[in-house]
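Entry type: protein chain
Record version: 2
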Amino acid sequence: MFNYDNAWLILKQFNNVIFFMDKYVDVLKRIWKSHVCPFCNEKADTILDFGKYFYVIPARAQYCTDHILIVPKRHICLLKSLSHEELEEMMDLINKWDKKLRKHYKNISLLLRDGLSKEKIWKSVNHLHFHLIPDHIVYVMNDDDSKNREFFDNEKYSKLAQKMKKKFS
């Protein structure tokens, strides 16, 4: 079974600054190869909010500070697979977290990730999810952008979630 902590063995250090190098790309390739969905195994301590059908978590490989994800609890890949009730809850959570983020940020971008992953577009997980991205330009990432994103280990990810719970409660 895939273990996120193993991905940290790839870290490289230069002048006391940790660079991401190929780590994120390697993590994606391991996810794709193992067919293990990280969103289907989310730990309770990293969940910021939840409903009957969805949960809210910090992005584990953030584009920027306070980047969050809204993820359906059941494993689905396509937006069209959501029921009417799921769509309503999804919109409620998007609106709720948009309001929370707007207390700290002027602009929020919503990004939908559905369908099946392809290395060419750097979509990370074959599980429908929505990104709420505060004050950050959303653009098509190239290979170098993807490689430079940090992927948090379990300890750092858990600490981030606790910090965000306090900030947005």
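Comment: Confidence is low (pLDDT under 50) at residues 1-22.
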